[in-house]
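Thread: fe (ii) ion complex, take 2
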Amino acid sequence: ELFTAISEVEPLLETHKRIIDDLDDYIQKEENRIIALKKHLSVYKQEHEKAMEDIPNYLGNPINAFTLIKRLTVDLDFIEESIKIGTEYIKNITMNHSDVKYPTLEDLNGAAHALTRLQETYHLDVKELAEGMLNGVTYSTPMSAGDCYELGRALYNEKDYKNSLAWMMVAINKFKEENKPYIFDEVDILEYISFAHYLLGDIKSAMAWTKQLLQLNPNHKRALGNIPHYQKAIREQEAKEKKQQRGDMGDDDQKHRSSGTGEISEYLKERQSYELLCRGEMDVPSEIAKRLHCKYLFDTHPFLKIAPIKMEYMYFQPDIVVFHQVMSDDEIKFIQESAKPRFKRAVVHDPRTGALTPAPYRISKSAWLRDDESPIVARVSRRVGHMTGLSLDTAEELQVVNYGIGGHYEPHFDFARRDENAFKKFHGNRIATILFYMSDVAQGGATVFTKLGLSLFPIKGAAAFWLNLHPSGEGDLATRHAACPVLRGSKWVSNKWLHQGGQELLKPCDLEYQAEAIIRQIPRPVPKTSR
Ligand SMILES: O=C(O)CCC(=O)C(=O)O
Ligand SMILES: [Fe+2]
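Output below.
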């Protein structure tokens, strides 16, 4: 699962270099071998010509008879042996070395999925992507027909036929333009295109592409077999459409039934604001925006009297703030290096069982760092106390996260719902989140609050802070948030989650608030984030 963290993809460059060196060496040896073989061949040809000019005379010469026999015994053995050595040698190269890392087919599929996630979230054009461009700017070498074909194949195998088809269409155009040798040919691409159309329910297109395939290869067995099948399906589809047209007159009931359930539209609504926010196309409401400001924070801890913290309000009710310059480059480097060897694919709590499992909606690698393992980690925790005025006594360890190719975390709450038994080992629920940004991100990777319409774009060394719970202890549903897929760059964050235990005197729960949490309509006063 190398694809789940960029830091784990980095060592693949070492593997890449190894392949370059091995292949260079192989080609050098192979060229020498070919030169030797060519010399043999030319001797064979020359001698053969001479022999054919006058066969009896040629073979009458005992030397010629001897050399002919030699060429067909010992020399032939040499040729055979040298070809065998070549294939053995290349076998050794393609066999995995144990001292470098190799990605798996799972990684290839993960990377393929990531590309489509990016393409869909950021409205990227497949043709532009294939040219190595993002929003009109070139960032990488263009993809070859082979790259596009493999990507299309990976998506096809993952049953994502729509995106598979989009990439196969680019593959076929590039294939015709490039005119390069590949292990696949135009017929193979056409077969994927036809079948993807079929699986997407567009049987007429499937038929048209299959006919194109048969023009190139009239004996293609599978394509020939599919034609009657498609013809039958088209007839059935047309009959169904006709029946539906007749039935539709006045069948209002049908229309209501197909309008979908409320649950789906709620999901789609969230998805829509998530994507808009990820692209930075949504602003916070103007009545909030006009009150946003920055200030120096110097009263949550006496220490701040001499070193106040820069605090920027990003939202009110719930209050979301960003503290600037609260983690130094050296601290970041140390934390990254400590986390790397312990990285595991990030897991989520299964809401039914509370068990930890990896999920496709959270693609990253993470590790936990304890305060007592390094004064640097402890110093960062202490700083969280200074910034928030809250107790760290019941906090979780520092969770360090690196997102992989297209890495993301879909909308979620940081607190546990009442029916989840996720946080039983902690003192109460997650009252607050402090999210340190340990890198800038070239493109994408924002933290977005889907209910609020707020996007926070990572700034290295800054930290976002918000309370997840109402003062009553009820989870604040407005804190629903997500990590957008990383479009370009590597995103590092660390989370410090504070729990309710130990905050009783610092953030007393309020009976009025408790009532408010139940009767949500009552507007509540702006709670002070700092004290
Ligand atoms: O990485 C981010 O921007 C948010 C991460 C997050 O929400 C989490 O880890 O719970
Ligand atoms: Fe979160």
